[in-house]
């Protein structure tokens, strides 16, 4: 046996032992009644968001829900008690726009020679009837991968819930609202069809419809026309079979008709002031329940947004000078002003009285999210409004404020416990509850082995693993 | 390089003021000007009174009312705002929706951008109204819109109130994709010949007629009390063509050759609609009588040709000859550079064709106004018309003429002196923003270094564990319940 094989055998044996021991552990835990389902965080400062903060109070979590909040609440005898002295309890944060669960292929996988699926040949569309870049029937929840390594990273930073959606297209598919804990995809999904994103951009090119921005808008308009027509025509046809020719099957109009009937929020992409005004106008024309997604120049049009009462999802990936920008390249004053003022969009929206939520929009890590929120706060946004944007207001925009977004009895037990202000530079998150499941956060050495509780750790041991021989 | 930075500054002078439009402005009183009215001669030492954005009085013996804003125009020439009957400014995204042979579903009005720098550059050339057209990739192109160059106002404030909407048609080489082809693997789009272009237009209007009939039938049956009728589908492509058939939308047809011009006149007659303008129309002089008889206008270039096969038979006398034969003629830009000196383009007809100065001026003012059906509002300096006025330091038909001020609805949208005065201030703002970014970038670098240092320290510890492979550099573990 070569040393290499020997090592592999050892590591396999070790892996088996780990699996076995975790079973034993799980069984023993189950013998005592399984995972605890009751918790009480006591002596903590509580920020329910929907109500004024409680300086020294208790939050009781029971069977996945928040059972009680207050200064003088009974603690169930079976509850695990967490001493919250010096800690602050917040509702779990909501990131209202990610692609969590849709990991990009690893650089490591590629270098290992993993076969890349060949790019599908581009399909040329000649008009709206070809339904270009349109897959509204795709639902993020049906496709997401629980193994995305960013899920535990986001959770450990205090994000318990995210809106996630597959990649681009005009109608890329429906965004799902997911909680960031669970053993199966089904455990995560709070609302599979939470939002219908619409990307108002030209697809480019000259030979396939739509190449231009105006083509995309005309296309979306035709789709909403068709959807409205289907909603009218289908009941008439069904009630009068035999009187008119059968309706042609069109998946797009049927799916979107259902989304609109379910009052799903339509996310219209719009970042600069002109795009935002355009989206506001189109939302009115199309008579849809819309939200603006992007909105980084809303500082210029906050009044118009507030007047239309259309909510906004603000992309926290503030525009900035590209890291590898050509130092000789001419930058317009307009661009410089945009970069300078974008972080003042949230305070403008707050002052105008518009409802808004935040999303990470491709920021690589939670620390960048918090850093960019701090930029918005230094531009004048009140910390209270920043917190609402991550909690109650995000929940309201996505129509889940009856179950998420605040610490109130009956709400889903998504809770973050931190050792200070949640947006503070030095603040550490200590505990995270997702659907009442407890995660204790330690900022110390990483786990030695993969466990069921830590899907982020590599599932397969390799020769290079340091565990060998231990 | 220098030019680029001046552009950047020009651009920056857009203030971002997208606030509410139209506070009722003070009356404006302009005095001591040479006024070129276009309709009733030139007035030396004249005055113009502007009230509520309209021309309230024009003449020599006027007095400024109390409270009016005074503008002294001594030594200056005032002409009506220039109207560009063929422009592609103020559009977000591609000007062409090129794939379908009929792209009438797309609307320029959906993508207007009042921050486009070309609007400002056009204003600096005295343009106040423009016909914004879709490109020429399709026999039937997108829906067009007439705008006033109200730069920096809301997108909804751009369209010329009450102007009939239009649609772009295109004949010849562009719609048949003669001078470029599809990428490999993609078949050539139909049509590929001039015959095909005609057929596409004919087919589209046949469909539009049918579409209208379907809706008319449905409406009739429904109003006569029939129930449980499935309504027809709306078709965004055919609806504007129905509007053309009903005379509610103007056709602006890009064309070059005499034969295709006659073809479109025949097709239009057959389907019972009118072509409002032939655009470019470089061979218009060959068929000027036929164009005049059809009631169409001609909007052409002064002396720009031979850039492709179908543009070889052009002559600089085209505008003058069409005008002479009774075609309402204008000179357009099709290009934001050209739009900066439409006054000179018009003046060329005095050399090529002996057009009178006043008729030359008409080519960029009253005539395009007539072509766009807005001559009751703009195109001349007459009482009751919009106060869209351009101030030149010389006779506008002279090569020395430079625009000093451009007013739309009595409001100043370009002022050369103000613009020049603002430049140092804007340059300063730009530098301070650049410095601010630089400083922030350096601070961030410093922070990253400090972070790396602390990471290195922790690496020195005996434990050899790798951090988890996540996007986050903070080492985190989570422990489930024990």
The 3D shape of chain A can be described as globular
CATH architecture title of the domain at 93-322 and 330-404 in chain A:
Alpha-Beta Barrel
C-alpha Rg of chain A (nearest Å): 25 Å
Number of domains of chain B: 2
CATH superfamily of the largest domain in chain B: Metal-dependent hydrolases
How would a crystallographer describe the biggest sheet of chain A? 8 strands, mixed
Fraction in beta strands of chain B: 15-25%
User: What is the CATH class designation of the domain at 93-322 and 330-404 in chain A?
Assistant: Alpha Beta
Low-pLDDT regions of chain B: 1-23, 459-482
- Compute the number of strand runs of chain B: 17
Specify the structural class of chain B: alpha/beta
Number of strand segments of chain A: 16
The oligomerization state is heterodimer
The percent range for helix content of chain A is 25-40%
The general outline of chain B is: globular
Give the C-level CATH assignment of the largest domain in chain B.
Alpha Beta
Distance between the termini of chain A: 20 Å
Strand content of chain A: 15-25%
Sheet bearing the most strands of chain B, described? 8 strands, mixed
Question: Going by CATH, what is the homologous superfamily of the domain at 93-322 and 330-404 in chain A?
Answer: Metal-dependent hydrolases
């Amino acid at each position: 046996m070569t040393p290499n094989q020997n090592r592999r055998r050892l590591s396999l044996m070790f892996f088996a032992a780990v699996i076995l021991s975790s079973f034993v552990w799980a069984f023993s835990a189950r013998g005592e009644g399984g995972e605890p389902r009751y918790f009480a965080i006591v002596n903590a400062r509580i920020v329910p968001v929907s109500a004024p903060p409680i300086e020294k109070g208790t939050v009781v979590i029971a069977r996945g829900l928040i059972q009680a909040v207050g200064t003088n609440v009974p603690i169930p005898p079976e509850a695990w008690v967490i001493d919250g002295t010096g800690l602050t309890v917040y509702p779990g944060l909501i990131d209202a726009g990610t692609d969590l669960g849709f990991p990009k292929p690893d650089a490591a996988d590629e270098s290992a020679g993993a076969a890349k699926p060949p790019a599908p040949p581009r399909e040329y569309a000649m008009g709206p009837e070809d339904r270009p870049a349109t897959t509204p029937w795709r639902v993020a929840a049906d496709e997401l991968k629980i193994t995305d390594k960013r899920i535990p990273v986001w959770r450990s930073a205090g994000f318990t819930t995210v809106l996630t959606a597959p990649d681009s297209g005009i109608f890329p598919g429906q965004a799902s609202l997911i909680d960031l804990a669970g053993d199966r995809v089904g455990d995560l999904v709070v609302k599979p069809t939470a939002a219908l994103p619409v990307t108002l951009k030209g697809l480019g090119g000259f030979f396939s419809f739509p190449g231009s921005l105006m083509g995309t808008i005309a296309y979306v308009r035709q789709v909403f026309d068709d959807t409205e027509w289907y909603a009218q025509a289908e009941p008439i046809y069904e009630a009068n079979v035999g009187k008119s020719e059968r309706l042609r099957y069109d998946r797009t109009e049927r799916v979107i008709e259902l989304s609109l009937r379910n009052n799903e929020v339509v996310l219209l992409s719009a970042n600069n002031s002109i795009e935002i005004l355009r989206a506001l106008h189109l939302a009115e024309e199309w008579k849809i329940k819309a939200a603006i997604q992007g909105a980084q120049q809303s500082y210029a049009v906050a009044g118009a947004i507030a007047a239309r009462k259309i909510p906004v999802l603000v992309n926290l990936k503030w525009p900035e000078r590209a890291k590898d920008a050509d130092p000789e390249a001419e930058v317009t004053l307009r661009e410089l002003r945009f970069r300078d003022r974008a972080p003042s969009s949230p305070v403008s929206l707050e002052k105008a009285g518009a409802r808004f939520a935040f999303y990470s929009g491709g920021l690589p890590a939670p620390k960048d999210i918090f850093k960019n929120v701090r930029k918005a706060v230094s531009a004048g946004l009140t910390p209270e409004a920043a917190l609402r944007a991550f909690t109650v207001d995000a929940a309201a925009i996505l129509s889940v404020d009856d179950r998420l977004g605040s610490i109130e009895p009956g709400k889903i037990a998504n809770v973050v416990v931190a050792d200070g202000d949640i947006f503070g530079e030095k603040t550490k998150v200590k505990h995270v509850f997702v659907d009442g499941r407890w995660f204790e956060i330690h900022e110390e050495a990483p786990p030695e082995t993969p466990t069921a509780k830590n899907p982020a750790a590599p599932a397969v041991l390799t020769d290079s693993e340091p565990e060998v021989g231990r | 390089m220098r030019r680029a930075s001046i552009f950047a500054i020009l651009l920056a002078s857009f203030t971002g003021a997208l606030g509410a439009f139209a506070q009722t402005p003070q009356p404006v009183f302009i005095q001591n000007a040479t006024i070129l009215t276009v309709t009733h001669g030139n007035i030396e030492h004249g005055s113009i009174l502007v009230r509520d954005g309209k021309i309230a009085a024009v003449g020599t013996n006027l007095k400024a009312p109390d409270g009016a804003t005074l503008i002294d125009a001594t030594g200056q020439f005032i002409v009506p705002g220039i109207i560009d009957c063929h422009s592609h400014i103020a559009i977000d995204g591609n000007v062409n929706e090129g794939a379908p042979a009929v792209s009438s579903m797309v609307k320029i009005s959906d993508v207007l951008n009042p921050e486009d720098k070309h609007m400002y550059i056009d204003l600096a050339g005295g343009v106040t109204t423009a016909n914004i057209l879709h490109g020429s990739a399709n026999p039937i192109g997108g829906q067009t819109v007439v705008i006033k160059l109200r730069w920096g106002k809301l997108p909804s404030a751009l369209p010329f109130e009450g102007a009939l909407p239009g649609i772009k048609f295109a004949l010849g080489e562009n719609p048949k994709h003669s001078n470029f082809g599809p990428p490999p693997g993609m078949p050539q789009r139909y049509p590929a010949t001039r015959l095909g272009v005609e057929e596409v237009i004919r087919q589209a209007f046949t469909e539009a007629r049918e579409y209208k009939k379907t809706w008319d039938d449905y409406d009739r049956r429904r109003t006569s009390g029939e129930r449980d009728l499935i309504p027809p589908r709306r078709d965004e492509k055919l609806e504007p063509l129905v509007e053309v058939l009903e005379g509610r939308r103007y056709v602006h047809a890009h064309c070059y050759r005499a034969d295709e011009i006659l073809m479109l006149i025949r097709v239009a007659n057959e389907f019972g609609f009118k072509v409002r303008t032939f655009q470019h129309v470089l061979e218009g002089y060959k068929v000027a009588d036929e164009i005049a008889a059809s009631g169409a206008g001609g909007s052409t270039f002064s002396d720009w040709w031979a850039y492709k096969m179908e543009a070889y038979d052009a002559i600089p006398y085209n505008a003058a000859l069409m005008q002479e034969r009774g075609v309402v003629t204008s000179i357009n830009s099709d290009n934001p550079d050209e739009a900066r000196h439409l006054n000179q383009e018009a003046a060329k007809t005095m050399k090529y064709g002996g057009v009178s100065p006043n008729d030359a001026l008409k080519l960029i003012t009253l005539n395009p106004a007539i072509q766009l059906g807005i001559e009751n509002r703009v195109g001349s300096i007459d009482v009751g018309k919009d106060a869209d006025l351009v101030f030149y330091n010389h006779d506008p038909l002279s090569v020395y003429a430079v625009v000093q001020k451009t007013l739309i609805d009595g409001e100043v949208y370009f002022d050369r002196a103000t613009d020049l005065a603002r430049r140092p201030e804007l340059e300063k703002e730009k530098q301070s923003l650049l410095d601010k970014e630089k400083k922030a970038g350096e601070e961030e670098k410093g922070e990253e270094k400090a972070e790396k240092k602390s990471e290195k320290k922790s690496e020195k510890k005996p434990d050899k564990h790798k951090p988890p492979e996540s996007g986050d550099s903070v080492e985190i573990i989570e422990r489930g319940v024990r």
